[in-house]
Specification:
Elements: H1 4-8, E1 11-17, E2 25-30, H2 33-36, E3 44-48, H3 55-61, H4 63-69, E4 72-77, H5 101-115, E5 122-127, H6 129-140, E6 145-151, H7 172-176, H8 182-185, E7 189-195, H9 213-226, E8 231-236, H10 243-260
């Protein structure tokens, strides 16, 4: 007789309410190898959607990647309308929010780790609004990350000890209770990705300068390089602000890091 519960725990796993806060949910893809080697730890890749909330589509775009790299894929859904009607930007971590989205992600990771055997550190990918979340999470919890791919964020936070949070990291400890940990950040392989045609001018909340995503990603790259972080930048010709069009280069990077990564060091301290 087929084990229906085992079947349910393989492949595409439907959206599941986060037990720490059931207003939020996540979907998974569990690779085939988990069935035959359930006790062997798998790399975990977390994918953060953009403002359009195409979480399930991003999960499905990572299925082939998951099978090729024996990786488990976790895709949270941060819906519009929490904690108040019309609210849609809180998850980007641009400003402190009454919902602690960075901790919520760690709760989701813990829930997945309680059900599946995964490595303690995970890889993180985010596109657009999800890229905003991803690089700010990197400042807050670098010890949790193996690799990071940041694709086309609209707004950026620089590792700047003078400018306040959102534009810099000066008051990060006061707001989040976390200090910038450059030693841990340097252990994370980082990729910044943007389309060469993603050059539409965007307003900046505290600047007279109107800059594109392309320019902002270049600024972030230069700031990471100045700190001697392990970072690369890819500008994709002929591509505008299109997450799926950028995905292949991010998956190549993440796949390489999964194959080369050393998971023996580093503990995710939450």
């Amino acid at each position: 007789m087929r084990d229906l519960q085992l079947d349910f725990q393989q492949g595409r796993i439907p959206f599941t309410a986060c037990q720490a806060d059931p207003r939020f949910s996540y979907c998974l893809y569990v690779p085939t190898i988990q069935r035959v080697q359930p006790d062997s730890p798998l790399p975990l890749v977390v994918v953060i959607h953009g403002s359009s909330r195409t979480a399930e589509s991003f999960r499905d775009q990572f299925i082939e990647f998951a099978e090729q790299n024996s990786a488990l894929i976790l895709v949270p859904l941060f819906p519009v309308g929490i904690p108040r009607a019309g609210e849609g930007d809180g998850y980007k971590l641009e400003q402190p929010d009454e919902v602690r989205y960075e901790r919520l992600l760690l709760d989701m990771v813990d829930e997945v780790a309680a059900q599946y055997c995964v490595h303690a550190r995970f890889s993180l990918y985010g596109f657009s609004g999800g890229a905003q979340f991803a690089h700010r999470f990197f400042y807050l919890y670098p010890e949790c990350l193996q690799a990071l791919s940041v694709a086309a964020p609209g707004q950026i936070t620089l590792p700047d000890s003078v400018r306040p949070w959102g534009r810099g990291t000066a008051d990060m400890e006061r707001l989040f209770g976390r200090r910038l940990n450059l030693a841990a950040m340097s252990n994370v392989a980082v990729q910044l990705v943007v389309g060469a045609e993603d050059n539409e001018p965007l307003p900046d909340a505290d600047s007279l300068h109107i800059r594109s995503r392309l320019v902002r990603v270049e600024s972030l790259y230069n700031a990471f390089r100045a700190l001697a972080l392990n970072v690369e930048m890819r500008v994709m010709p002929g591509i505008g602000h299109h997450g799926f069009a950028l995905l292949s280069v991010s998956q190549q990077f993440l796949g390489k890091q999964l194959q080369q990564g050393d998971y023996s060091e580093g503990v995710c301290e939450t």
